[in-house]
Specification:
about 110 residues; alpha/beta; globular
Length: about 110
């Protein structure tokens, strides 16, 4: 199941050290809405291996400001409590491309 990240829970989840994938999105963003089923599928496929979820920039903004999210969708990857900048993705993504990045994250 896709995690819903909020400003209240996201820092604790990242600090846990487990692999974390955050999709920054908004309801008015067409590409974000089209990616939603892909993010949901990947959250189910990687359950127990990575925490995958969505961060709604309309409702939350601390994390978006911290990581300078200027366009959506943007996907950030974290492991061992730290962002992995080389894996950052911006714009709509194909499932295979996003899956490849998750595999890279898990291999770190």
């Amino acid at each position: 199941m896709t995690m819903t990240f909020t400003d209240q829970n996201v820092h604790e989840i990242i600090a846990s050290g487990q692999p974390v994938v955050i999709d920054f999105w908004a309801t008015w963003c067409g590409p974000c809405v089209r990616m939603a089923p892909i993010v949901e599928e990947l959250a189910q496929e990687y359950e127990g291996k990575a925490v995958i979820g969505k961060y709604n920039i309309e409702e939350e903004n601390d994390l978006a400001m911290k990581y300078r999210i200027m366009s959506i969708p943007t996907i950030l990857f974290f492991k061992n409590g730290e962002q992995v900048p080389s894996l950052r993705m911006a714009g709509a993504q194909q499932k295979a491309d996003l899956q490849a990045r998750i595999e890279e994250l898990l291999a770190l």
